[in-house]
Amino acid sequence: MSDFHYDELLPQLRDYYDRDAQRRAEMTHSAWKVVARAALLTRIQAEGKCTLLEIGAGPGRDALFFHENGLDVLCTDLSPAMVAVCQANGLTAHVKDFASLDFADSAFDVIYAMNCLLHVPNEALPAILANIRRMLVPGGLFYFGTYGGQNEESLFSGGPIPGSRYFVFRTDEQLKALVSPYFDLVDFTVMQEDQAQNHHVRFQSTVWRRAD
User: Fold this and answer.
1) How, if at all, do strands 165-169 and 202-209 pair?
2) Which of 80, 85, 127, 138 is a good FRET partner for 19, with 20 to 30 A between their CA atoms?
3) pLDDT given for residue 198 in this prediction
């Protein structure tokens, strides 16, 4: 049982990302993230999917990429400052954390979560995954990209700005066990440390499908 509770973590996460919004808006993606994103776009286009929700969108770099490639994109983030950056870039964006996503049933062809659900303790993740499934059309795709490869959770500091954030890292087996009750696995690609540029964890780039 985790000592961390999602609702209690939200104020700290929101404050951190509000303060980090401008710096992140000026960043560019690492090459390996660009590769993962492009591979997903190829799959989306091959399947003729049109609508995409990005949760935990941050400054909206990925959302803007999908928008510029013809998708109808909606963004959410828990940080008002991040949402403001998305809106300044012409994206439709709303302030919502993962537990407050209240869009209609079967509203999206694709739901995209890049490096954001690692802020959700394992005990809180099933309800969020069930809600993501609800919002996807039958046959819709769920992209879940996250750092992992080991079983660890903690408050981590030492980032680019002062403050600490909660992270949870999951082994490949843990991640599959958590997500598979809600989605069918389409692709599970692991990027090693040299690709993900992280000495402690690797990147799990996963694609799932709502089966019915």
Assistant:
1) unpaired
2) 127
3) 53
Q: Quote the domain boundaries for residue 79.
A: 6-209
Residue 71 within a domain: yes
In a domain, 145, yes or no: yes
Alpha helices in 69-206 (DSSP H): 80-88, 125-135, 172-179, 193-196
* pTM recorded for the entire structure: 0.95
**Which CATH number goes with the domain that contains 76?**
3.40.50.150
Burial of 174 (0-12, 13-18, 19+ CB in 10 A): middle
**What is residue 192's predicted lDDT score, i.e. its pLDDT?**
66
DSSP 37-77: HHHHHHHHHHTT--EEEEES-TT-HHHHHHHHTT-EEEEEE
Residue-by-residue DSSP string for 122-142? TTTHHHHHHHHHHHEEEEEEE
Evaluate whether residue 1 is within a structural domain. no
Q: How far is CA 137 from each of CA 62, 73, 99, 101, 199, rounded to the nearest angstrom?
A: 21, 15, 19, 15, 38
Give the DSSP H/E element, type plus range, for residue 168.
strand 165-169
Q: Which of 34, 63, 65 is nearest to 195 (CA)?
A: 34
- 80-88 and 6-25 helices, crossing angle to 10°: 40
Q: Does some domain include residue 38?
A: yes
| Of 33, 105, 95, 103, the residue nearest 65 (C-alpha) | 33
- pLDDT mean values, one per 10 residues, the chain (212 residues): 88 97 90 91 98 98 98 99 98 98 99 98 98 99 96 90 95 98 98 56 94 90
Give the chain's domain count. Answer: 1
